Inverse folding.
């Protein structure tokens, strides 16, 4: 065959209803399967079912600039108009108490309990020692609303070599009811 030759095709028309119906049903099934795979199953995408993520939460200590004795008794430290308790200044670690793994908890009211182990009871009780309450105190934390919360998160995928940090992703801070506080 030379470079300047061209090829033509012959068309054969088969006039059989059963064979024609079988052909168009098979062609329709192939087309339907292709549409389902592309648009519903998203088979053109490569999914990674094992992405790993990290999150780091930092709560900075509220600024303690010029705290005097009058500020240690804040309006929210008062139970009513006559009894006011003294507030305590807490650092960022004491303010952020890990109650839940997916939540940020800033403590505003703290109950502190000091216990001492009863060594005599340890010898008689098989399940372990009992503890005796030495002292217990309740207090409010001073200015927890002025603390700074930093949330850093990242995600990494092993199969698609994707990695992104909080600087490249968008996210939101939600309250308990699911309302967006800040994007």
């Amino acid at each position: 065959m030379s470079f300047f030759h061209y090829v033509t095709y012959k068309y054969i028309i088969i006039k059989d209803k059963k064979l024609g119906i079988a052909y168009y049903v098979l062609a329709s099934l192939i087309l339907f399967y292709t549409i389902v795979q592309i648009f519903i199953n998203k088979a053109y995408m490569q999914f990674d079912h094992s992405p790993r993520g990290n999150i780091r939460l930092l709560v900075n200590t509220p600024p303690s600039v010029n705290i005097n004795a009058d500020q240690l008794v804040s309006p929210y430290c008062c139970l009513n108009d006559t009894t006011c308790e003294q507030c305590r200044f807490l650092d960022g670690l004491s303010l952020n108490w890990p109650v839940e793994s997916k939540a940020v908890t800033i403590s505003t009211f703290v109950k502190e309990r000091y216990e001492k182990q009863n060594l005599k009871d340890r010898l008689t009780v098989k399940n372990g020692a009992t503890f005796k309450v030495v002292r217990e105190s309740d207090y409010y934390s001073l200015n927890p609303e002025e603390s700074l919360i930093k949330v850093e998160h990242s995600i990494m995928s092993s199969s698609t070599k994707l990695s992104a940090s909080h600087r490249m992703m968008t996210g939101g801070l939600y309250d308990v009811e699911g309302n967006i506080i800040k994007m």
In short: The chain has a mean pLDDT of 76. The chain is about 20% helix and 25% strand. The helical segments are 17-40, 92-95, 119-124.
